[in-house]
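dumping these here so i dont lose them again. two proteins, back to back, each one seq then structure tokens. dont judge the mess
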Amino acid sequence: MATVNFTGAVDRELIRRAKIVAAKTDTSVNALFNAELRYLVETFEAAETASNQNYRTLLDFSLGRINDLAARATLGIDSEEDLFLFMAEARLPMPRLPAATTQAMVDELNALAE
């Protein structure tokens, strides 16, 4: 199988942690990246072939393109717990708020305590 070089931006802390995982498992960050990317692409393609849009919805939620309410409505589920279970089963990370949004929430909570 032919390979190509790829350049991308990765969070500094994430790459540091990936190097630790790679060292502990006697592999490379490249091999870890390839395995996860292959899983994501093959799962997406399989769902698309089966005309199942659930994985696309979960991926959109993971990437922050839709919120939990929209994801739950599209998937036809009522609880956040079910959404979290689907995310875990799909091996997709939960979305993260931008750092500025998280800090604003912390500041708001701290202001309530004063």
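---- next one ----
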Amino acid sequence: MDYDSIIQEQMNKLELDELEQIMEDAAEQSRGIFSSLSTDEIVQSMIDGKPLFDSEVMIQNLLDVFLYEVKVGLVLGVEIISICIVMGLLKNFSNSFGDKPVSTLGTVVCSCLVITLCLKNFMITYHACLDTLNVMTGTMQVLLPILIPLLVSMGGFSSGGVLNPVILGAITAFNTALQKFILPILFISSIFVLINALTEKDYVSRLAAFLRKAAVFFTGFAVTVFTGLTAIQGLVTKTADGLLVNTARYSVDNFVPIVGGFAADSIDMVLSCAGVIKNGIGVLGIIIILCLLVIPVVKILAIAVIYKLTAILTAPIATKQIAGSLDEMGSAVITMAVILGLCALMFLIFLTIIISIGGGTLWK
């Protein structure tokens, strides 16, 4: 029996329909940046040494999506600039006719309109970030029950027994921390930024900047702690599992008469095939996470560009507070993209740790 038939037989025993459906949905959400792949295609590409994607096509599609999102976001920029032009006209009329109260009232009304537009847009971006986080977390919860048993079947008893609760606990804790603590801090900081548009004091903006930096710090700290602990556990259990597998292979080879060497070679082949399948599913998980990440991050960065450009364009015609608040909103949106990226990075590190354990070297 060759390794192709062993791999196919082992894959037929796995229930991958839900995972591959997630892959199809994620590839569709990526708008052509990533194409849908099955586990069979990934495993075969790994065996043949062929690339999974055309990098030039991916980069071009990514650029096209970014430019499209910028065009969509221009509507928000045009609306804000139009309101700021009205605000500038009111200020000029006030200076010409000396009607200060009317100008002040008009400025406040225009500022409230700008705040309303920014808050509405930020709410949409905020909920899109939450939805992406939930989908990525759900994907990891689907992947682990498939990857961990494969890891155990390769002799990774210690790794499977330790990493499964560690990674599941880290994913649950991190998701809870983001939804209940970190992202709400970022949302509150954005509210403070918008409030700052109505006052000439900059105390509120300083507090908003502090909260934004705190959100990034706590996210980075959580990613470092969770991935660090998981990596250490993986290294320790990988050594123990490697010793166990080598001992079993040596025992079969030396203490089973006549057929011991053939049995040891068969064990090597079965373990290698299981490793290839595990790595293929892990790579599929990585691709899914990237598919789920790319469009939300592109949208968020496009919105950030709109905020930054609008802040520059409105600086000569609007109040200093409005221009500064738009610039700070751009920074807040970028911070949201950073937090989402760090979340995806942690999940990718978890998958990489699982892929690295147990090998998967295949020879003919």
